[in-house]
Prior knowledge:
Blueprint: E1 12-23, E2 26-37, E3 41-45, H1 52-59, E4 67-72, E5 75-76, H2 85-90, E6 92-95, H3 107-117, H4 123-136, H5 152-164, E7 170-174, H6 182-199, E8 202-206, H7 210-215, E9 219-224, E10 227-230
Parallel strand pairs: 3-8, 3-9, 6-7, 7-8
Antiparallel strand pairs: 1-2, 1-4, 4-5, 9-10
Amino acid sequence: MENTDNSTENKTIVHLENLSLSTANGQLLTGVSLDLREGEFVYLIGRSGAGKTSLLRSLYADFPIDGGIAEVCGLDVVNLRRRHIPLLRRKIGIVFQNARLLGDRNVYANLEFVLKATGWKKRNEIQNQIEKTLAAVGMAERAQSLPSQLSEGEQQRVGIARALINNPALLLADEPTGNLDPVTSAEIMQLLVDMGRQTGTTMLISTHDFMMIDKYPARVVVCENGTLTDTEKH
Length: 234
């Protein structure tokens, strides 16, 4: 039955149509078409070198798009002017394989840096947002710790907090459990699943970890043979 409320459930966060990407070595991806709706949790899988990371980077305007249509969070990424890139990235959270935290400042200051860089000015609002986000990822008690005092799993939790701090419409995670042991990997994937449900953020998770996909099943998009295959359509 068709849902008559199109304001939320059917809202498209990512729309790719006949997208093509290339490197100096030749064509990387071609004919890529994909739609991600609000609140979806989607895995992006494929062999190393298949183009997963380049595709994710293209969504936040960090990798050039050769042709096609790419609409992300309501913005035309193909024709996006340089001055509008910060606007796009405020709508997107990014989680890397390595948390890439600023080592010279504590957890609180890492998140504070992101908020100030994206226009937050009132100290009490900044404090409330940081405390709320750290509590959501189970890191409230480590706010004053330096990254070097955290385990890899804890660092990744802070990385997820940083990605979610601005309430993004889209979260992109590139191998978020790639450096973690199986137990910690499961904890991080469970956290991503839970945060997606709680926030309604659309999540596109690149991973090689098929055990996690089996444990936390969701829609799977396969990057192979220079294009994407969406298992939802098969």
